[in-house]
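User: Now give one protein:

AI:
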Amino acid sequence: MDAGFFIDLLFPAACAACGARIARGALCGECRMAIVPHRTAFCGTCAAALPGMRSACHPRAPYVLGAAGNYRNPVLRTLIHALKFGRVKAAAGTLGDVIAHYAARLPIDLKGFSVIPVPIAKERRRERGFNQAELIAARVAEFFGLPIERDVLVRTAHRGPQSDIEDPAERRLNVRNCYAVLPRPGERTARAPGKVVLIDDVTTSGATFTESATALRAAGTRKILALAAAKSV
């Protein structure tokens, strides 16, 4: 038995949503069932539902959006906050599972895709101690048996958090030109995988996904499925 088993036995965890004692993870079974998953993917430009993954509204959208649930769902929102602001790392695994089970129902073959987490600024990472998108991405990659690329996409500028900005136009401006794919050591040209599953915890205006996708496409990515645990649009 691993050390984690004995730690869980001596110090049982609490559900992040209701506080009930649980053996492992971040949610009890009842709260987990309260997260209602979406049934479709969404347009990466206008967030309209895309039955069958086919876009009639914006066929040139930079990515297909996959959002597992709605940010208004109190359990899902609490789980995201527990990870992002409460530093409850166990929530990352649960959010990764929520995303993975949702994505597994989408009509898309992920063979040949690489998983890339949306990066955060170095200053934010030092403050928080981790990148929440990277922790979630690790679980999604494990679920699908896909490689995870942690150093392909980088954040090149440190600005105020998106969560402090309500206006969509200001959100887009706040992350404009903040992401890039840099050449690998010994190479002159920046290269990104041809097919990418881009991971973040939540999407609101879509600005972060759009800027990230723009950087990836400039470096050679052709297909992007942008997955988040929740969307508020």
Summary: Residues 14-228 form a domain with the Rossmann fold fold (CATH 3.40.50). Confidence is low (pLDDT under 50) at residues 1-11. The CA atoms of residues 26 and 91 lie 5 Å apart.
